[in-house]
Write a structure and sequence with these properties.
about 20% strand, about 375 residues, 6-stranded mixed β-sheet, flat, 14 helices, alpha/beta, 3-stranded mixed β-sheet
């Protein structure tokens, strides 16, 4: 199943504008709450200079980049955990994604009202986190009631889980989400089973005005400090600007960004940060002279599982994997030269794929 990055935040902070810029899917955008009700799902290409270099070396007929699934989730409001707005429905959508990109507003625009009188990104973050925390506390309480009931028949089996539930509740009460905690495999399994919202990996996206580029303006600093304290990443981006530039010729868009003093696309930085947040790596395949392809893969995955990502037949009939690192391939200039230099190595099914591996699977058809 594909991993998904959910774009969350309060209404009118620029979530759908960012989504449009990413996907060119033209999701509805308007300056009033709840424009997005059902989540929009898009698949975005992950920019990777290594794939460009592989394409130069192999000269394939087709080049296919790695992709990332992005979900635009409707805005939360204060009281969402108690059903305010369309709260319960929205919280359910958040529960289904693997990681969160929280968009916070740091731009001024009189034509787009903010949900509060004062524009304060930290207050907006707190509002969202409170609603996620309240929803998680309700989830923990329901599980505690169930576990307590089962403990009457099997008290020993329930003790460890009750202790974990207490620990998770204490952390959430203290404003320390469980994603910051080192979990044992058993604890992590329970957290995943419960689908705790505050346990999901988190990235802050600060939506700034074009006039605030390239530094991002005065409101970015406090968010950067908070992210650093939490061990989270932050990506300042002007969603409105990126949405307009998405339809420009690439060279013109790059020239305009240079005029703004911006080094590269904010969208590319967002995608790369989301990729890291989901703990993904990229491996590559070269099919004859026909196709060079980049594949997303969870870090720590075996080559046998990676073969299954390509095609189930490769996993079922797996014999061995022929692997060369991207750096070695780029330095060699061709697969043949890399093989002659002994840089291409043969691996069995338990080999753990590394970021940048170029892999050819040998299999029984």
């Amino acid at each position: 199943m594909a991993v998904e990055l959910g774009i969350v935040g309060l209404p009118n902070v620029g979530k759908s504008t960012l989504f449009n810029a990413l996907t060119r899917a033209h999701a509805a955008v308007a300056p009033y709450p709840f424009t997005t009700i059902e989540p929009n799902v898009g698949v975005v290409s992950v920019p990777d200079e290594r794939l460009q270099r592989i394409t130069q070396i192999v000269q394939p007929e087709k080049t296919v980049p790695s992709t990332l699934r992005v979900v635009d989730i409707a805005g939360l409001v204060k009281g969402a955990s108690k059903g305010e707005g369309l709260g319960n429905q929205f919280l359910g959508h958040i529960r289904n994604v693997d990681a969160l990109a929280m968009v916070v507003r740091a731009f001024q625009d009189a034509d787009i009202p903010h949900v509060s009188a004062d524009l304060n990104p930290l207050d907006d973050i707190d509002t969202v986190m409170v609603e996620l925390s309240l929803a998680d506390l309700a989830t923990l309480q329901k599980r505690r009631e169930k576990t307590t009931e089962s403990a009457k028949a099997h008290p020993a089996d329930a003790t460890a889980e009750l202790q974990l539930l207490d620990a998770l509740q204490a952390r959430i009460d203290a404003g320390k989400p469980p994603r910051e905690r080192d979990l044992t495999p058993q604890e992590a399994a329970l957290v995943r089973e419960l689908g705790l919202l505050t346990a999901k990996p988190l990235l802050y996206v600060v939506n700034v005005g074009e006039s605030d580029l390239p530094e991002g303006g005065p409101l970015v600093g406090p968010v950067r400090e908070r992210a650093a304290a939490e061990g989270a990443e932050i990506v300042p981006v002007c969603a409105h600007c990126e949405a307009e530039l998405a339809d420009w010729p690439e060279a013109d868009a790059a020239a305009y960004r240079r005029e703004l003093g911006v080094d590269g696309s904010g969208l590319d930085r967002f995608i790369a940060a989301g990729y890291r947040l989901l703990n993904l790596i990229t491996f590559f395949t070269i099919t004859g002279g026909k196709e060079a392809r980049a594949w997303p893969l969870p870090r720590g995955t075996s080559v046998l599982e990676a073969a299954g990502r390509i095609h189930t037949d490769l996993q079922r009939g797996f014999i061995r994997a022929e692997v060369v690192g991207f750096t070695d391939l780029a330095a060699s200039g061709s697969l043949a030269v890399a093989r002659d230099k002994g840089l291409l190595h043969v691996e069995g099914k338990d080999y753990v794929v590394r970021d940048g591996d170029v892999i050819h699977i040998r299999f029984n058809a």
